[in-house]
Structure formats: C-alpha cells, structure tokens
Amino acid sequence: MVSTPVNTEGAAASRPTGPVWDRLSMKTKRLIWVWSFLALPIVFYSVIRFYPTLQAFWLSLTDWDLMRPPVFIGLGNYERLFSDPQFWKVFRNTFTYLLIGTPISLLLAFTIAYYLDRVRFMHAFIRALYFLPFLTTAAAMAWVWRWFYQPAPIGVINDVLGLFGLPQQPFIRSVNQALPSIMVTSIWAGLGFQIIIFMAGLRAIPGTYYEAARIDGLGEWAILRRITLPLLKPTTVFLVVFSSIGFLRIFDQVYNMTTNDPGGPLGSTKPLVLMIFQTAFSSYQMGYAAAQTVVLFSILLVVSLLQLRVLRDK
Amino acid sequence: MTTALPKPAGLYRANIRPAQILVWTLLLIGGLIMITPLLFMFSTSLKTAGQVYDLRVIPAAPTLENYAKVLLDGRFMRWFLNSSLVAVTVTLSNVFFDSLVGYTLAKFEFRGRYLIFLAILSTLMIPTEMLVIPWYLMSSQLGWLDSYWGIMFPGMMTAFGTFLMKQFFDTIPNDFLEAARIDGLNEFQIWWKVAMPLVTPALSALAIFTFLGNWTAFFWPLIVTTSKELYTLPVGLSSFAVEQSIQWELIMTGAAIATLPTLIVFLVLQRYIVRGVMLAGLKG
C-alpha cells in the first residue's frame, strides 16, 4: 500500500494555512486532503486486515504452540487435517447447518414477507413481532432455547408435549436431535432480518409491473412466478449468500447450548468455527488452527462464488 | 429521514375477505411464536425459583427479586458498562472513519482511488475467524489482551460501512460541495458540515448495525478477555449461566438484561431501524 506520501502530507495537512500551503495549487491541496483523510484508514486496513490475513496463511504452514517459535512444516497441518475423521465430521455438520438451514429459513422468510407485505391492519405490530428476535443477543437467546429444550418438568417444549400426551424428546441431549434443535434456534434468530430485506425487495418492484400483468389477465400465481420472483432475484441472491455465510460460521448458539461438552453430544453439533476455537484456544495448536481457518476461508469463498454464479446465470 | 419507501400499490384490496382474514390470523400466530422465547425469558425472570415450572406466561406473583440479586452481584453492572463502552466507541469510530473514507472514495478524483476501494472491499471476503489468531498474537505482543482496546480494535473501521457510505455519497450532487468550496470551507468542513447532513439515513443505518453487531458480539471478546472484569455482556452472561447451571430464573434474568436495551431502543425507534436495515440491505 502507499505509505510514504501519507506521513509527510498528513503532517502538512494538519496546519492548512501559512505561506507554504497558500502557494500550493488547488489540485495539490486536494491531494493532500485526500491522503490525510486516508492515512489512518490505510494504516488500519494494512495492519489489522491485510497483514493478519497473510500471517494466517503463513501460520497454517507452521507448527506452533505459542511457547516456542513457529516451525515451518509445509503442508503438514493440511495433511493432518484432511486425514482426521474428526474434521470430516465437523465438515459434515457445518454443511448440514448450511444445506438445511438456508433453504428452510429463506422459504419461511419469503412466504412471511410476501403475505406480510399486503397486510394493512396492524402491519407495524406484526412486522415488529417477526423482527424483534433479530435484535437479541445470540449468546443470551441460546440459553433461553437451551432451557426450552430441557426434559420435563424444566423444559417448556417437553412440558407442552406432555400436556398433549405426546412422547418426550431429548432434543440437545441426543446425538440425532441436537443439531436440528440448534438449527431451529439459529433460523429463528435470523428470520426477522431476512423478512425485512425481502419486504424491502418486494417494495422496490414498481407497481406498474403488477398493473400491466393484471391487465394481461395473469393470475396471482403467474404474477408471483413471472414477475415477483424474477424481479426479486438480486434480493434473493444477496440473502442466499448472506445466510449461507452465517450458517457456515455458526458458533455462538452451538457454544452456548453445549457448554458442558462444546459441540456435543459426541461432537454431533460441532461446526468448523468451534473446532477452530478449541484447537487454537483450548489446545493452543496455533498452526493447526490457522490451517483450519484457511480451510474455512476457502469454503466460504467457493460457496459464495458458486452461489453467485449459479443464481446469476439462471 | 426524507426518503420514503414506495408503498405497494393497492392491488390486493379487491381480494376475497375470508382469505385475507385467514392470512392475517396465520401471520399473527407466527409472529406470536417468534416472540415466545422472549416472552418466556421475561416472564421467568419475574418468577421465584419455586414458580419456574409454572408455565403461565404472566407470573402469579411477579417479583423483581431476581433482578436485584443479579444486579447487586455487581458483575452484571460491570459487564453492562463494558458492553456499552465498547459498542458506543466502536460505533462512533465507524460513523466517523467509514463515512470519511466512503466520502473520499466517492467525491475525489485521484490516482489509486480504485485500487484503495478494491483493497478495502476485498477485506469483506476475509472471515473474522481467519484473523483472530493473528490478532491474538498481535494483542499478546502489544499487551492488548484483556483490555478495552483489545476488544475494540478489530472493528474500528469496516469495509461494509465504508461501502455503504460510499454508495450514499455517490448520490449527492457535486454542486453542493462546489458551492461550499466557493464559500471558503476547507475539505474537512465540506465533508463534515455539508455532505454528512445529507446522508443521515445512511449514517443511522450504519450506527444501528455497528452498535447491534458489537453489543451482541461473542467470538472475539470471548477470546481476548480473560479476567471477569473485562467481559462484555454476552461473554459474562455465558460464564454466569455456566456457573448457575440449573437456576434458570437467574439465567433468564441475565439474558433479559442483555436483551432489554436493544429491544427498548427498537420500540422507541422502530421506524428508523426497519428503514435503516432495509437501506443497508438494499445498498449493501
């Protein structure tokens, strides 16, 4: 990045009057302003974003436990990771969150937004009901849901099941049900945002399109398929990518709902970010953890690019 | 807030009434299901330990005992202050720097402009998780671990905010800025006094997002803080809940304390917040 002009010109710009300043041309003065505006941000992005990114790549090629200096081991961490069955389990969990969570939450969000958009009576109130969960703290709400999932008589859901004479469910205590239970919490937390964005997208479609379609005698279903959905595509693409990234990076809910055995039971809910967290900050295998973060980065990149391609082309 | 989002055309008014009533009722039921966790959280926070298993949403004998217990303990007060300090500082920093950079990239012609814009934008692709290990290392070398600055520094500027602000500054006419230049304002004053007031909707959207993101942030604060005095509310709550293990009324009280501020702010500023989220979502 450009760093030399920043220091000298930044100093000059701090006193924008005086004989030297007055003799400068308009254009030079503007340039001095520009680089003094950008000086601190350039330092910030270089030191807090770019340098750490490169460092993460470098650390992923080292063996490092924080105590001794990092030792270069080439692709050793990646070989170890890809032959670790634990990693593939985590990999599968992470993609389960993504592949089930994203379609369900987007379908729900679109259906709700589509109908909510037409509701006039108490519109703001109902919209608020859906939107409120978005404003909550994931770590806090994870505990509320954890409480809901407890066995009777503590857990509310099992209490209600009991009232209707339905069988009790183990939820987050079961290897099979824990991941879906956490996914429900996560879908719940993100739904409000998606609904609001879908509604914004729906409102951005000019009313004249609908009028024209009506005059042409299109039914409601045809209008939805031929006008609303195609025109809503930018919004949908944005939400698919946004929500996928969210599910691939899931952490807060899993960590807080399984504190007694993070990612448990038996690793059945553990996502990649939790594995990274434990490798780095419980076992202090920094190089190995860095390799995992690089894998996460690659997954995010590939998934986003694939989605952008597929959804844009259609 | 000047721009009003267009209302949908009144096309559906002719629809059949019963269908509308059905849709409305279903939407209401769905909405009530959405806030059920919040209702139970608040209701349980008002119950004594003996009433926790009572499923009634409105407690038989509501009491603020739990709040007194949790708050008098002192730690929650501290975590609340920590979270407020961190979220407010980071928000102010983003409002200032993101808009300054966004403005510079939108309104000045200079060599390297496109490069800088692309460089900043490219950081959107880098997940926080990839940076935490280098940040942790940097913090331990510079003595930032377990400090407010340590919690705050990674978020002081964001590519998202810069991009959002640039999008909005792009739309303001250059004539305004030229007029101010002729009036003898310097470039900083033009930005601060002329351009900034023209983008207040975007600024409030940015402020809302930044505040919310930092108020609820968990991953990095969990890593960078080790002493309980420096925990933020989510991290503190998490450790508190582990410690209470089965005292759900106290855990729910803690969760309510973490959640209440953002909910109250929302109820007061609902219109602005919804519009802000829409703006950011559409432009971002």
Automatic annotation (TrEMBL), chain A:
PROSITE patterns reported in the protein's UniProt record: ABC_TM1
Q: GO CC: one term?
A: plasma membrane
- Membrane topology summary: Multi-pass membrane protein
Tell me yes or no: is Transmembrane among this UniProt entry's keywords: yes
The UniProt entry, under PANTHER family, shows:
ABC TRANSPORTER PERMEASE PROTEIN, INNER MEMBRANE ABC TRANSPORTER PERMEASE PROTEIN YCJO
- GO terms, biological process: transmembrane transport
Taxonomy, top ranks, is: Bacteria, Pseudomonadati, Pseudomonadota, Alphaproteobacteria, Hyphomicrobiales
Question: Protein name, please?
Answer: ABC transporter permease
| Family membership noted in the UniProt record | Belongs to the binding-protein-dependent transport system permease family.
The membrane spanning regions, by residue number, are 31-51, 95-116, 128-148, 187-210, 231-251, 288-308
Q: Where in the cell is it found?
A: Cell membrane
Q: What is the species of this protein?
A: Phyllobacterium myrsinacearum
Primary localization: membrane
| Domain ABC transmembrane type-1: residue ranges | 91-307
Tell me the superkingdom of the source. Answer: Bacteria
Report keywords, A-Z.
Cell membrane, Membrane, Transmembrane, Transmembrane helix, Transport
From TrEMBL, chain B:
Q: Say where the protein is mainly found.
A: membrane
Q: What is this protein called?
A: Sugar ABC transporter permease
Top-level lineage group: Bacteria
Q: Where is the ABC transmembrane type-1 domain?
A: 80-269
* Signal sequence extent: none
Q: Which family does it belong to?
A: Belongs to the binding-protein-dependent transport system permease family.
Q: What InterPro entries has UniProt attached to this entry?
A: MetI-like, MetI-like_sf
Compartments annotated for it: namely:
Cell membrane
How this chain sits in the membrane, per its record, is: Multi-pass membrane protein
Q: Which GO terms describe its biological process?
A: transmembrane transport
Do you know which Pfam families this protein is assigned to?
BPD_transp_1
Q: TM segments?
A: 21-42, 79-103, 115-136, 148-169, 190-212, 250-269
Q: Gene3D superfamilies annotated for this entry?
A: MetI-like (1.10.3720.10)
PROSITE patterns attached here? ABC_TM1 (PS50928)
Q: Keyword set for this entry?
A: Cell membrane, Membrane, Transmembrane, Transmembrane helix, Transport
Question: How is this protein annotated for GO cellular component?
Answer: plasma membrane
